[in-house]
Amino acid sequence: MGMKSGYGQKKRHGRENETGAETDSWRKCPDCDSIVFIKEVRRNHDVCTTCGRHFRIGARRRIDLVADQGSFVELFGDLVTTDPLAFTDSIPYPARIEKAREKSGIDEAVIVGRADILGRSVILSVMDFFFMGGSMGSVVGEKIARAFETAVAEKIPLVSFTASGGARMQEGLISLLQMAKTTAAVSRIKKANIPYISVLTDPTTGGVAASFAMLGDVVIAEPGAIIGFTGRRVIESTINQKPPENFQQSEEILKHGMIDRIVKRKNMRNTIRKLLDYLAPEE
Predict the structure, then answer these.
(1) What is the spatial distance between Cα 128 and Cα 131, in angstroms, rounded to a whole number?
(2) Residue 111: in which H helix or E strand, if any?
């Protein structure tokens, strides 16, 4: 079943277009407006070399940055999204899924598998915002639930990276049920006393934030990540007030105790390994 495989505040609440103005060699940072050399940004873990903005990255790139080279073995890649509601918005749901696959280069909004992080074996779950906004449908929820179940069965820690706009509207109530499914899976790993580290990346919102993402033994976030349930524009229209610029940003929610710490991408591997050694020392 396996397969190998910033702290700037400017425009932080409007991150729909992550690429900005980009050529084959250069890109414009949406935070500081610097024109940065793409190869330098890649060498800097896809972080702006001027202001430290953590650019959004896909699941495959995340795995490359976190897992030991050549250690990742994908699980449950054979699970395929269907069209249970025969849903059509501007295009039929199956066509939208196919477009998302072409755009992102992956089959679904999450990739799970076995991996090593600095020599420590883990189950790794990585969401991809570039696949339909990281929305959680039935297959996404099932793969995440199975990741927890595998961690329990094999008695190894689970590390989750989230990036999502929430539930997948094309699956209606079925997508909302994934919140209960993944939350139940978290309860099983906790009963088994197996570590679960949750890493929130930009953005982690909606049903993902309201379920398994916030339930880790340790919940950490990347700098500048937007984290919350309802989007900024919905809240603004509801309360008839303009939220502050740093609203729902990881640095702000850390002050209110919603997360445990903020970790820069370049330090993520070492931090995860240290946390695992603390939560479950190897014998």
Answers:
(1) 6
(2) strand 110-117
DSSP conformational letter for 265: G
Task: Spell out where the chain has E strands.
Answer: 3-4, 26-28, 35-37, 73-75, 110-117, 120-127, 158-164, 196-204, 218-221, 261-262
Dihedral (CA of 185, 190, 193, 198) sign: positive
DSSP state of 204: E
Q: What is the pLDDT of residues 65-104, one digit of tens each?
A: 999 999 999 999 999 999 999 999 999 999 999 999 999 9
pTM: 0.90
Residues in the chain: 283
Q: Are 198 and 214 in contact (CB under 8 A)?
A: yes
Dmax (CA) for the chain in angstroms is 56
Q: Name all domains of the chain by residue range, CATH numbers in brackets.
A: 6-55 (no CATH), 56-279 (3.90.226.10)
Q: Distance (Å, rounded) from C-alpha 72 to C-alpha 64?
A: 9
- Helix axis angle, 138-154 relative to 172-191, nearest 10°? 10
Contact yes or no for 163/225 (Cβ under 8 A): no
Residues 6+ apart with CB under 8 A from 283: none
